[in-house]
Design a protein that fits this description.
With 619 residues, the protein is an alpha+beta fold. It has helices spanning 3-6, 20-23, 44-54, 124-142, 165-168, 205-215, 219-236, 283-295, 300-315, 317-320, 324-338, 400-411, 444-468, 476-494, 500-521, 527-550, 559-577, 585-604, 606-616, and strands at residues 10-12, 31-38, 63-67, 72-76, 83-85, 104-109, 112-118, 197-204, 245-252, 266-273, 344-351, 362-369, 377-384, 387-394, 416-420. The chain has a 7-stranded mixed beta sheet with strand order 10-9-11-13-14-8-15.
């Protein structure tokens, strides 16, 4: 492997990407899928060879996510990308620790190749480039008699640029987001946790264009209006309210600004219909309203306002220097508030083209966005050849909105066929195959229903027993602390595949808090601060040292945790100086051990340590 391929580089997340690591979890994956159906079954060995061969070209994909003091950042991932056979519902949460630290996964099933991507990596533009190149490289291996020469580089003109174009085209001006807006919310019964219904509609493009010409609107405007109308007919008439039906429509900003970045570079506009309760609306009226407010936003000036709003918060000096754990709180609150501004999402990737020599081997492309109870319905569009593939992903237990949508298209004269992933009985797989039995996310939902309910009952029993036999000691608080610590351990350290060093740090803090609580609940004799807290810190130092030794090739990645242990060691020292700690031996020993390990780390690798600190502390 070339030296350049082994070089560990790092770069910042783009402006939009900063939000995704904070808000994402098993219940809100922020993962989307771009897939291709070929005309012959996939040979996994050749697909894996093609994948590993082309991966070094895509610097924005060949990364792992790292946690800094103020921001996350990406770092080159030298490992191979795992390849697996599709077995789970689409767009499940990607756990880096079970995926060689990668934030995308590649899978296959029969004649289908899937690439599922965590949105922090790239948007649809970068995803399409990656899948097209993977498909071409695979086809060259699969049909050597058809492709006699294999170039050293990409077969298509593909962008590999890693640039935060939001920052490049930012200019300071007044801007506002969607924080104060509340849109109409679709409410319905959900599927079982972890399940997702996928519905593909294959629309004949010539008949679709004919309908759009009759209405004098674009394809996106027409589809957005049909979606609004279907929501109105299916849900709004049953449960009307004062909020507008508002469709979130991502827009590729590369149309307005010269950029070929493979990182995220999109803005969000909306298609909106404000409704009056008790009034009947015809489709033509909705189409006119939706197309007008959508079109009015497709200007460079408006896109500059969107960029200004997105980047202004990041450039705020106070926010930039805010530690990451505090940013977590703020970003989650902002996201929760702004996510109420849209009823659902409609994303159009546009026409996907392969080079002519590869077209005979490709059946179709498709695009899927993850849906969950927090974001229960998503709609996406892509085109290939003479077909437009409109895909619903849904966490709802019925498909009546999907049926209403495609029924309206048929009524207007659009020729189409509908299939799905088998969740809804009448929607069976067809052109796009799916396994007959799909698996849900393992482990995550089990603990929420089992452990939590059992712990809640046990905690209530302890409180009642303490009240019934109360003699001045609130011992049930210690029991409640133990239960909380158990739940935290099961959730974060057992069912959550986080970095081992992060687990040790979290477990240390949790155990220290529990010891303090237990000491206080049993009358407080000081054993927690004098012995337990520093002893746990000593143990954490030892375990961090072991991790450095075992992972000696990347020992510097544990440097930040060692700095944090020094900070934790200063807290008990302060308590000793204030007279709270009366037996300081373990406190001083723990702090000295943290300082010695930190100093030894800098002496062992001065350049690596400095580079690590630069990455971790970038603002």
């Amino acid at each position: 492997m070339a030296k350049a391929e082994n070089e560990i580089k790092w770069h910042r997340l783009d402006n939009t990407a900063n939000i995704f690591p904070v808000i994402s979890n098993e219940a809100l994956s922020n993962v989307y899928r771009i897939g291709v159906a070929l005309k012959a079954d996939v040979e996994p060995e050749l697909l894996n060879e093609a994948l590993q061969h082309m991966l070094p070209w895509f610097e924005s994909m060949r990364v792992r996510l790292r946690r800094g003091v103020f921001w996350y950042y990406f770092e080159t991932n030298p490992k191979a990308v795992p390849l697996g056979k599709e077995a789970m519902y689409p767009c499940r949460y990607i756990v880096p620790e079970t995926n060689n630290q990668y934030l995308f996964r590649v899978s296959y099933y029969k004649n289908k190749i899937n690439v599922e991507i965590f949105h922090a990596l790239t948007d649809g533009y970068g995803a399409i480039n990656f899948l097209k190149e993977l498909t071409a490289q695979y086809l060259r291996l699969r049909y050597p008699e058809k492709f006699t020469q294999r170039p050293d580089g990409p077969v298509e003109r593909t962008s590999f640029q890693v640039e935060d174009s939001y920052g490049k085209y930012y200019r300071k001006e007044p801007a506002k987001g969607y924080g104060g807006i509340v849109a109409y919310e679709i409410k319905d019964a959900f599927l079982r946790p972890g399940m997702m219904g996928v519905t593909h509609g294959f629309l004949d493009i010539p008949s679709l264009k004919e309908v759009c010409r009759e209405h004098e609107v674009s394809i996106t405007q027409y589809l957005a209006a049909v979606l609004v109308y279907s929501i109105y007919q299916t849900y709004y008439k049953e449960k009307p309210d004062s909020h507008a039906i508002r469709i979130n429509i991502p827009v590729n900003l590369r149309q307005f600004f010269p950029s070929e970045t493979t990182m995220n570079f999109f803005g969000v506009v909306f298609a909106e219909m404000k409704l009056e309760e008790g009034r009947e609306y015809a489709f033509g009226e909705m189409l006119k309203m939706v197309s007008e407010n959508f079109s009015s936003q497709l200007t460079k000036e408006h896109m500059e306002e969107l960029i200004a709003y997105n980047v202004s918060n990041e450039k705020n000096k106070f926010l930039r220097w805010m530690p990451l754990f505090l940013k977590y709180i703020g970003i989650r609150l902002i996201y929760k508030r702004s996510s109420r501004a849209f009823t659902t999402t409609l994303s159009n990737l546009g026409l996907i083209r392969m080079l002519p020599e590869y077209e005979p081997f490709v059946e179709s492309f498709h695009f899927i966005m993850g849906a969950s109870p927090k974001q229960p319905l998503k709609c996406v569009v892509c085109s290939y050849g003479k077909e437009l593939i409109f895909t619903f992903s849904s966490a709802f237990s019925n498909n009546r909105l999907q049926q209403a949508f495609f029924r309206k298209l048929r009524e207007d004269g659009v020729k189409l066929k509908v299939e799905g992933n088998g969740v809804y009985k009448e929607e069976k797989p067809g052109k796009i195959p799916y396994p007959e039995h799909l698996s849900r996310e393992p482990g995550y939902y089990m603990w929420t229903t089992g452990y939590f309910m059992a712990s809640l009952v046990l905690g209530l029993v302890l409180v009642l027993l303490n009240i019934a036999s109360y003699q001045g000691v609130p011992w049930s608080l210690a029991g409640m602390g133990a239960i909380a610590y158990f739940l935290f351990t099961m959730r974060f350290s057992v069912h959550h595949n986080a970095n081992p060093a992060l687990k040790i740090m979290a477990q240390t803090l949790g155990a220290q808090v529990f010891c303090l609580l237990a000491d206080w609940a049993t009358g407080y004799s000081g054993w927690s601060v004098n012995y337990a807290v520093p002893a746990l810190l000593l143990l954490a130092n030892g375990m961090n040292l072991i991790l450095m030794a075992v992972n000696y090739m990347s020992w510097q990645s544990y440097l930040l945790f060692q700095i944090e242990y020094v900070v934790l060691g200063l807290l008990p020292l302060t308590m000793w100086l204030l007279g709270v700690i009366t037996s300081p031996f373990l406190t001083v020993t723990a702090l000295l051990s943290s300082l010695v390990l930190l100093g030894a780390s800098f002496l062992r690798g001065d350049k690596k340590a400095k580079a690590e600190l630069k990455r971790r502390f970038h603002v």
